[in-house]
């Protein structure tokens, strides 16, 4: 008798687990495993949407890792094209890969980019005891001997993290970029441990990935790749002020399926604007090293079109695609 | 002294009735999730995340609930390994090797008790180690570069020779098939897809959970259908649960050694608990030698992997909390939760948010005792869940597996793949080829290759880089010893009298 009750309890627990992962509420697809930037975007935006009453039920986050976001992209285009309750986390990596044709035949116009509400500034960091004191020191060392400096980053070869130092070197007039060593490890924190351990000489990544390590003094940031210094991190110089005209920020935002109505698109744009305006989001940005960067709705879509075209040109120039 | 003040702070957080309730609920759910094949700790924790937000739990409460589920799942995984020969989650894979033979001999109760106690010992020691040395231990991660990791994986595979009790060539073949499967997907170092046939679903490789559920659970269904349940694993009866004190005492050193090795495997970011249970099983098998009877149903064979994987679960929390580097799939999910709660794990977490860290450590200690209670005296409750008639149980398990796998990727493709693995598992079992090495190949192959490629990138193609540090050389020596020793040991054991004589002198 007792066991029957417990068995029923177990079964109902199992059922409620399944119910919790059903698709009744709005769903946010994070096209990567838990722990990364896209996952953060989904979980944070989803949580705030619910906390500020923009949605009635907690947003269900689905992790759909695969092909650097390509799996989620093709799934949305092929299987969920008209789902008005679906949002997908996106970032610079999404448009970089679309521009580089890394998602197979998929193109950027197959979905609608609804907005970005923050940007993670690109950074280049070294271990605290590194001989490099400025970005110029490092660039000169690479010019003298390209094999003397290896970079670690959280994206695969050819990805956004890989392109950041290449853009800097390109801006410094160094053209032999295929000789630059880069290893793509599992995420920014892993790239930092490789750099602190002395296996690589520098780490390329996003500001959010290095905050804790900067505070603890284990790494030094040589440069942040923004127009101006980032609030809260005023002592980190920009690449621009060191003479390297490179801006590379990883914006955090969402896209929605291409087949939804204009009303539904506007609904998500308004919701996203509400998140951007909320105190919770401002706090989350501050806690995670994100800089303000809000572009929502139609403006964002046209900005994205420009970025994709620009990235395509740049990728061709630095030899990532033909 | 500091540590007691910190622990006092932790217990003041963890001992509130609300937190305790959450810990008990978490342990219970976790054990069930672990026991059900297809639902492992990582998707179990992921599924529970929305619930923590719905309940409006604060950071500490959410962490207590989710880590109780994590620890609970690590305990629960062994139950279906022992009773069904289907690992409840991937770290429990090694437990099938001796756990199921024990169950077939009518010693399921002993296997459950010993593995439960081993789980407790492993998890408890790991939690204590986490509290004592986490900030210092995190530095181990800084000592491991691509060359050291590669040597570590070589060590894992070098010991594989002793894996199969009957035919080593077949075990080797299975491992190679696993490694071949691991090469499917995006080549992270060149940016090109390999062996995907243009299918985007394959470009991230084959998920080992899909492989595990297919090779074990789905294959079991096929077997069940063929034999109408006669030769099937399902249906092992659990008679009486008695505590085999003497047998348990005989495994004490196994438990302690395995806890230490498992913990270190967990601290190293990588395969985490699975590597932990594998290395500990192999180590104990090596120590016991041919006469140890590993693989035929011995107590040490269930104690080693269970102490190992539970210690690794605790160890994996070290790099997660102190570096923000997840040591396993589940800690990656926990990391995501922390970030959502605006807690950034990293070198400053212990100083910035002591109440979170020490609350977590204190509740892990409590969860451990709750889990010991649930998994030894009350183990029948969970066994009951698995002891419904096989004709009902197998379809049920299969259904839950399908749901669990679907929740991973939200795509039907993995379900098709899982069935294909089921067919493969069935065929392999017919040909007497072990399936555990296949999983290990898939599990470790990706990281092993990546680290080799990274090492070659960093050194400019210079192979001596692989032997360039004391740690790497040490690991290589162990690997060579692990590979060669069984060959010589076998030669010596052919002359048992000599071996006996040597023993007397000792």
From TrEMBL, chain A:
Pfam families, A to Z: TctC
Keywords: Signal
Signal peptide: 1-25
Record keyword Signal present: yes
Superkingdom as given in the UniProt entry: Bacteria
Keyword Disulfide bond: no
Protein family according to the UniProt entry: Belongs to the UPF0065 (bug) family.
Family annotation (PANTHER family): TRICARBOXYLATE-BINDING PROTEIN, UPF0065 PROTEIN YFLP
Protein name: Tripartite tricarboxylate transporter substrate-binding protein
Automatic annotation (TrEMBL), chain B:
Keyword Membrane: yes
Keyword field contains Transmembrane helix: yes
Ranges for domain DUF112: 20-440
Record keywords: Membrane, Transmembrane, Transmembrane helix
Entry's transmembrane regions: 47-71, 111-138, 144-164, 171-188, 208-225, 260-283, 323-344, 356-379, 399-424, 431-448, 468-489
Top-level lineage group: Bacteria
InterPro entries reported in the protein's UniProt record: DUF112_TM
Entries under PANTHER family matching the protein: TRICARBOXYLIC TRANSPORT PROTEIN
Record protein name field: Tripartite tricarboxylate transporter permease
């Amino acid at each position: 008798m007792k066991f029957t009750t417990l068995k029923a309890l177990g079964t109902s627990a199992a059922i409620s687990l399944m119910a919790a992962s059903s698709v009744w509420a709005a769903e946010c697809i994070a096209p990567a495993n838990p722990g990364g930037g896209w996952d953060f975007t989904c979980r944070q935006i989803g949580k705030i949407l619910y906390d500020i009453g923009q949605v009635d039920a907690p947003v269900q986050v689905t992790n759909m890792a695969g092909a650097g976001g390509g799996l989620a992209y093709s799934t949305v285009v092929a299987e969920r094209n008209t789902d008005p309750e679906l949002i997908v986390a996106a970032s610079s990596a999404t448009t970089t890969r679309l521009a580089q044709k890394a998602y197979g035949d998929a193109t950027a116009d197959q979905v609608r980019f609804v907005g970005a509400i923050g940007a993670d500034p690109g950074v280049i960091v070294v271990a605290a005891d590194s001989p490099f004191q400025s970005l110029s020191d490092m660039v000169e060392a690479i010019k003298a001997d390209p094999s003397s400096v290896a970079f670690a980053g959280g994206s695969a070869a050819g990805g956004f993290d890989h392109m950041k130092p290449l853009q800097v070197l390109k801006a410094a007039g160094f053209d032999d970029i295929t000789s630059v060593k880069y290893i793509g490890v599992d995420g920014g924190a892993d790239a930092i441990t490789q750099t602190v351990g002395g296996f690589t000489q520098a780490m390329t990544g996003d500001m959010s990935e290095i905050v804790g390590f900067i505070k603890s003094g284990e790494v030094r940031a040589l440069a942040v790749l923004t127009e101006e210094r980032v609030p809260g991190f005023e002592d980190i110089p920009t690449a621009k002020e060191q003479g390297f005209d490179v801006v590379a920020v990883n914006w955090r935002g969402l896209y929605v399926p291409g087949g939804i109505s204009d009303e539904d698109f506007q609904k998500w744009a308004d919701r996203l604007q509400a998140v951007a305006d909320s105190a919770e989001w401002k706090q989350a940005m501050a806690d995670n090293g994100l800089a303000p960067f809000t572009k929502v709705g139609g403006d964002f879509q046209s900005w994205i079109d420009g970025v994709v075209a620009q990235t395509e040109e740049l990728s061709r120039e630095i030899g990532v695609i033909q | 002294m500091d540590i007691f003040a910190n622990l006092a702070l932790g217990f003041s957080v963890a001992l509130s009735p609300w937190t305790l309730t959450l810990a008990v609920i978490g342990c219970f759910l976790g054990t069930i999730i672990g026991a059900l094949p297809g639902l492992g700790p990582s998707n179990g924790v992921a599924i529970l995340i929305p619930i923590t937000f719905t309940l409006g739990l604060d950071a500490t409460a959410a962490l207590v609930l989710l880590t109780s589920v994590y620890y609970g799942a690590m305990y629960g995984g062994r139950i279906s390994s022992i009773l069904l020969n289907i690992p409840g989650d991937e770290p429990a894979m090694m437990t099938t090797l001796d756990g199921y033979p024990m169950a077939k001999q009518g010693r399921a109760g002993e296997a459950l008790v010993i593995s439960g106690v081993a789980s407790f010992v492993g998890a408890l020691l790991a939690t204590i180690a986490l509290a004592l040395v986490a900030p210092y231990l995190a530095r181990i991660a800084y000592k491991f570069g691509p060359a050291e990791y590669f040597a570590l994986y070589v060590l894992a595979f070098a010991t594989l020779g002793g894996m199969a009790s009957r035919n080593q060539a077949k075990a080797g073949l299975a491992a190679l098939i696993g490694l071949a499967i691991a090469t499917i997907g995006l080549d992270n170092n060149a940016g090109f897809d390999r062996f995907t046939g243009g299918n985007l679903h394959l470009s991230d490789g084959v998920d080992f959970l899909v492989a595990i559920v297919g090779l074990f659970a789905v294959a079991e269904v096929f077997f069940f259908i063929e034999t109408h349940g006669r030769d099937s694993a399902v249906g092992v009866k659990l008679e009486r649960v008695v505590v085999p004190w003497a047998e348990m005492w005989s495994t004490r050193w196994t438990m302690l050694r395995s806890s230490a090795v498992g913990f270190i495997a967990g601290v190293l970011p990588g395969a985490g608990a699975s590597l932990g249970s594998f290395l500990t099983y192999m180590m104990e098998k090596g120590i016991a030698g041919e006469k140890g009877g590993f693989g035929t149903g011995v107590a040490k064979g269930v104690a080693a992997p269970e102490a190992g994987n539970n210690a690794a679960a605790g160890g994996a929390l070290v790099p997660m909390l102190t570096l923000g580097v997840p040591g396993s799939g589940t800690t990656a999910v926990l990391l995501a939760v922390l970030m959502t709660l605006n807690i950034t794990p990293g070198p400053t977490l212990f100083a910035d948010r002591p109440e979170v860290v020490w609350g977590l450590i204190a509740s892990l200690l409590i969860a451990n005792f709750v889990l010991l209670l649930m998994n030894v005296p009350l183990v029948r409750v969970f066994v009951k869940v698995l002891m419904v008639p096989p004709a009902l149980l197998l379809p049920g398990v299969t259904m839950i597996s399908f749901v669990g796998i679907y929740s991973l990727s939200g795509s039907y493709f993995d379900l098709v793949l899982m069935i294909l693995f089921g067919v493969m598992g069935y065929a392999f079992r017919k040909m007497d080829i072990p399936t555990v090495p296949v999983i290990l190949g898939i599990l470790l192959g990706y990281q092993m290759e990546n680290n080799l490629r990274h090492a070659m990138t960093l050194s400019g193609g210079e192979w001596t880089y692989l032997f360039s540090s004391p740690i790497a050389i040490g690991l290589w020596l162990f690997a060579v010893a692990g590979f060669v020793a069984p060959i010589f040991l076998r030669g010596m054991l052919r002359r048992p009298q000599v071996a006996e004589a040597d023993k007397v002198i000792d």
